[in-house]
Amino acid sequence: LAKTTQPISMDSYEGQEVNITCSHNNIATNDYITWYQQFPSQGPRFIIQGYKTKVTNEVASLFIPADRKSSTLSLPRVSLSDTAVYYCLVSSGGGADGLTFGKGTHLIIQP
Amino acid sequence: GAVVSQHPSWVICKSGTSVKIECRSLDFQATTMFWYRQFPKQSLMLMATSNEGSKATYEQGVEKDKFLINHASLTLSTLTVTSAHPEDSSFYICSATGFRVQETQYFGPGTRLLVL
Fold first, then answer.
1. Do A71 and A6 meet the contact criterion of CB atoms below 8 Å apart?
2. What is the pLDDT of residue A98?
3. Which residues of B touch A49 (CB under 8 A)?
């Protein structure tokens, strides 16, 4: 499984766009990149998943450069409720493999 | 879609007793379910993988006789913590993947276990 590296913490303010970058230098050809959000005492919530280029859904965008060695989660116009830990994961085999969670990025949104 | 539930959401038990935690996929058939454990201020750690109708595969360091996993149907997996001790107190989270959601895992809300 490819190891991921992301900032331990980030601060931002309400209404701003937040970009969290994750590096995964050893990503394999059949690996997908998935981001999860976790609030205290809750299970992780799926945010977005991608393989290459750009993926957008109703809550976030995921940018993946051509070499796929990194990815950036973009949260538009954050609010206080976006304060959470965000995990970047890389895995192959679809959802059939157990996930290896890194430390994640603790995002703190201030008024 | 892709909703996973857990029951109970929290449980307190005495040392030496056994506790069963249920994980259900509510709107899809889960061919594979996973159990994770998370200690305070730490990340999730995979404990075991279970496929419907077969024995669970445990990660290194996880005692299979202590953490009994049963995945008897495509919508239900159970984790039983046998002879629980205070060091087993943790947040237990299950996830599931299946025919309709093959490329990712969806997580349950978690179960907080406190062993006194």
1. no
2. 77
3. 103-104
